[in-house]
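Bug #77: duplicate submission created two jobs. Keeping one. Sequence:
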Amino acid sequence: MITTISEHIVEIISDSGEGAQRCGQAFAAIAAKSGNGIWTVEIIPAEIQPPARSIAGASGNRVRLGSGPVTNGGDEVDLVVAFNEQVLLGRVRAGELKEGCTILLESMWREHRDPAIASAYLKAYEGLVADGYRVIEIPMERECRQLVSDPRKGKNMFVLGMLCSIYSLELGLAREQVAITFGKKDEKVVAANIQLLEAGSAWADTNLDFRYRIPAVRSTETQVVMNGNSALALGILASGMEICAMYPITPATSASHYLSEIFERVGGVVHQAEDEIAACTFAIGASYAGKCAVTITSGPGFSLKQEAIGLAVMAEIPLVVVDVQRGGPSTGQPTKAEQGDLLAAMFGSHGDAPKVVLAVEGIEDCFYAMITARKVAETFNTVVVVLSDANLATAQQPFRRPTFSEEWLAPPVDQSAVVPGAKPYDWDATTGLVRRSIPGQPHGMHTVTGLAHDRDSHVAYDSQTNEEGLRHRSLKLAALQRTLRCPPVFGEPEGDLLLIGWGSTKGAIEEAVAQLRSDGRRVSSLHLRFIQPMPSGVSEILRGFKRIMTIESNWSDSVDDALIDADNRRYSALAMLLRSRFLVDIECWTEVRGQPIKPRSIRAAALATLERELVLA
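Kept job's structure:
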């Protein structure tokens, strides 16, 4: 019997190196090609190669399938496939499994030759059953060994076949996806993996007594499925930028890997520098020479780039800096998601170094944000920081295939002669803008310096000249701000509570708000894309709500802690910015568990705030 459902959340988890992540990615791609909405969340251990069968070593993928568009990873898991019981226990203890969740568990450990392993398996199995989970033991090792000599390299495709059977997905699409997944391998490898896929599907057809169908309508428009880092890379191509300089750092590195495969085909160059500082200065040099370059990094690398970013601001050289945020401080949590770099992006440089800060809202926006960033950087001769994070970097989602537009590209570099007598920093009194200087322009020779300078680019330390430069570099943000439109309110423009977010939390916030509104709650949300400068109209929106609360994945003190009061509480980053700018009492709710924030958590926080308002009333 096939049960029709509107959505399901599935996890495939294993030790590192057993292919659970690849299985999840392939499963998601098959579902997306079938017309389902999908969102994936990679489960990545903190260590590169953690010990096998360790609770903290789970590696894999969460896949949320829906009959309509899916914008986030959702709440708890409905079904999990585990290659051993220890990685499963890690997910249980993290609270990731729904009550009564179905667990498909590799059974080989029950009769393991090591008595300690067999005992640990039995103890975990009995505990899971006692806790109300539906545990079904699967002989993955035994079944795969009939087809391959090393089941460790075959279980993931066997599991993929099982999942295709369970969720009524076409085996033909699955075969095509396997061929794509192993396309660079020998034909024998592709054939062996298709055989494993078919064996898994046949085993599930024969031995499992449940099936699901998630209704889907295939899009009439061509769609693409990719993760945020791939979308960033493609956005760089589409924007017309031709130089990317970076130093490898998790979780940003895969963007450069993808660019390295495709950039040369369109005349682009990926430069891997010896360190983060060199990568940033290489990009600045390329931009100075007439290109608009991009450098991609994560938190620790972004810190190292700060002095060079200040140079680009002072010399007024366009530069795009992508910060794929991760947990910090210091080395922190390299594989975990966080939104801890907002204030560093705005104020990290020494002295006053105004920069544009743009936070991407989703995977599709990773693509279009790069086009916007390049345009802004070149129009205003300034630094544009694009904030993504580990959640978007690895998550996959389908979106409409972009239709290329010539307007995305940079106009030809203006190398016409400089008017005699024109100054290299002849700032416009109203906007602070100045014509971009390119080496080799007739009559344009001048010295570029990171020191304080006058309109002729001569080093100048007098107070009046210093203030003149500071004023005009700041005016550029005001000029950009006048062009920005305020983002729309999700929900009604007035109500009891407004939730404000930025970055990758958009999908989860709006899902939580939609559910609260369906329950009769007067809750809306606002999501900010440009954070510096911030568009006009935000203050008017704030006035329409009784309470305002930011939702962020960075730290804020809890009012429930004994030492915390109104005088010493540390607020989250966006809450701090909004409170200081608009002089409004803005509450904040944060979660820094290293995982994407769940809609359920946001709903609970909003309800608690609403109930507190009723008590105070």
